């Protein structure tokens, strides 16, 4: 499978800069997920790779083959579209074999391939039907089947699960993950759903406003986000961000704000040394909170008044307030939480992330 | 339950009856006249009761019938020939209009080029010019410059030009509704521009093609003005032939009405066949609605 490389690829629509020049590098056989909010340029990136959008400048390489000026059919790719894009006038078998028929593959071979893929996806009994007679999930399978029959080196997925209901989406996600293991192919997957991104991707590329924010494994992104955007985008429930002031009272460095004061680990002193001012943003994952033991020193605890308690079974999400800030807290469902009460919490200092207020980079 | 069968005003029924009479009356007259001998047609007495006969039809079709009707002394080939001419002209001009029209419409919808909007608008503006205005210049140019008067090619060209704007316009609206993702999927699947068009777009806009073909066929079939000016004895279409058979010496009403009835049949068949293609929901299941 070729290694895909974006070399200072740029995209403009007329005068509008959509994607400033960027580099990306996907390894051979890797499952890459492009993730970001809508309008971040992830779909455009995928469509440039597919050949459906022109590259304004720069080059896309498959190993050492430049492909950005090639027609889609010459790129050795297959694609699954967000809204299926099945040919409504052809039955499922014809839909799946369309590419092969264009290539003038012998009929027996086509039938064998279609049958094999149909069996793999569990859609054998649908082959004679038209797309209009299928449910959303079945159509999605057919769309995948159409790509799989192709035997291309690289598969592109443009939000393939976003039109399915939650339960089906979860199921298809698992199947995709299985498929990733059995197929030795390059896969590039676009989604706005960070759960999909984290569960599927070997490499996740987080994009926002046309810029690549960070790329890496799910764990990298979760544990060491490059900036506030990535920290807020990856992880569910989302990270809490609190405006804080760094105070160095000789011994310990603390991040203080209205109603809270967190002692920071000693290593933070070095990292925050270059800051122009004391104003920072403190980022705390909802799961980093724990109920304060009775003997917790007053300085390290934060009092939160509970606004909403969302019971999710094992976990309970508390929507709380601290001054003007709304803070999400994720706890084991052991204790009972009363709306309107105020409770004390502690946070492990090692889990607190500090972001530069100006650049929003993590320190 | 409220009263579902509310009594209508009698005037309403009278109006409906009058409208029905206006619509069916002439056809009824034409049919009955075509089934009568000239003697019956001209006599005042037998307005309602007469002996129906197919003689008029035999006279019209004597040229194409496998037997020679005994009442026909001299078989006039004019009407049979005119029916053939009409069929040739209408079918070929419809075919050409559709082929050119669907490609032009596709280009106007999908391709970005300079003057696209203007071109799209201009095609429709062409339609605003009444045929009567075109008559004299077309006659002049066709006759004296290209010597295409009296040929099938000449009249077909005029009909194609006349119908093309509307066909392009109507097909544009159908092509716009074809989800662009389908074309993208086809391109990814390895189709070139022509394959995308013929294998994916065209089958989906079949209802549009059917509607456009009914329209084009009917116009070409019924057109009189230009056909009258351009065509000669051997290429005349039915509408022209009918009018030309009204001479100062003889008006054979029975034959004229029989021709009229025959004239009405092909468009009915054509419309019936074409309208079967007009089904809604062609794109059902293509993309998430």
UniProtKB/TrEMBL annotation, chain A:
InterPro entries: AAA+_ATPase, ABC_transporter-like_ATP-bd, ABC_transporter-like_CS, ABC_transpr_MalK-like, ABC_transpr_MalK/UgpC-like, Mo/tungstate-bd_C_term_dom, NA-bd_OB-fold, OB_MalK-like. GO terms for cellular component: ATP-binding cassette (ABC) transporter complex, substrate-binding subunit-containing. It comes from the Bacteria. Residues 4-234 form the ABC transporter domain. It holds the Pfam family ABC_tran. Keywords: ATP-binding, Nucleotide-binding, Transport. Coiled coil: none annotated. One of its GO terms (molecular function) is ATP binding. One of its GO terms (biological process) is carbohydrate transport. PANTHER family: MALTODEXTRIN IMPORT ATP-BINDING PROTEIN MSMX, OSMOPROTECTIVE COMPOUNDS UPTAKE ATP-BINDING PROTEIN GGTA. Belongs to the ABC transporter superfamily. This is ATP-binding cassette domain-containing protein.
From TrEMBL, chain B:
GO terms for cellular component: plasma membrane. The keyword Transmembrane applies. Pfam families: BPD_transp_1. It is a multi-pass membrane protein. One of its GO terms (biological process) is transmembrane transport. Keywords: Cell membrane, Membrane, Transmembrane, Transmembrane helix, Transport. CDD domains: TM_PBP2. The chain crosses the membrane at residues 12-31, 87-109, 129-146, 152-175, 196-221, 253-274. It is found in: Cell membrane. SUPFAM superfamilies: MetI-like (SSF161098). Residues 83-274 form the ABC transmembrane type-1 domain. It comes from the Bacteria. Gene3D superfamilies: MetI-like. InterPro entries: BP-dep_ABC_trans_perm, MetI-like, MetI-like_sf. Belongs to the binding-protein-dependent transport system permease family. This is ABC transporter permease subunit. It comes from Roseospira navarrensis.
